[in-house]
Amino acid sequence: MSLTDSKVKNAKSLEKEYKLTDGFGMQLLVHPKGSYWRLSYLCEKKQRILALGVYSSVPLSKIRERRDEAVS
């Protein structure tokens, strides 16, 4: 299920971090100290994570563009 701007804006920081997924390995890590965009992928049968940006400074549309560039 894809994320929407309203879902991202309404994500509240809790005591523990949690993830909101957007598809194709992209996720928003909601952390008590802030939210971070990440891309999870496999490389040589190992899971890797690529940081795409901080939520407040990079909007969802731009993050999807960065994801598409990284995947291609």
CATH class: Alpha Beta
Structural class by secondary-structure content: alpha+beta
Which residue ranges are poorly predicted, with pLDDT under 50 across at least 5 consecutive positions?
A: none
Any idea how many domains? Answer: 1
Share in β-strands: 35-45%
Shape: globular
Biggest sheet, spatial arrangement of strands? 1-2-3-4
What is the H level of CATH, i.e. the homologous superfamily? Integrase, DNA-binding domain
Q: Span between N and C termini?
A: 21 Å
Average per-residue pLDDT, rounded, comes to 87
CATH architecture: 2-Layer Sandwich
Helix content: 10-25%
Total beta strands = 4
- H-E order: HEEEEH
Radius of gyration over all CA atoms, rounded: 12 Å
Count helical runs.
2
| Oligomeric organization of the protein chains | single chain
CATH topology: Double Stranded RNA Binding Domain
Main beta-sheet strand count, sense and barrel state:
4 strands, antiparallel
List the helices and strands and how they pair.
Layout: H1 5-9, E1 18-23, E2 26-31, E3 34-43, E4 46-54, H2 60-71
Antiparallel strand pairs: 1-2, 2-3, 3-4
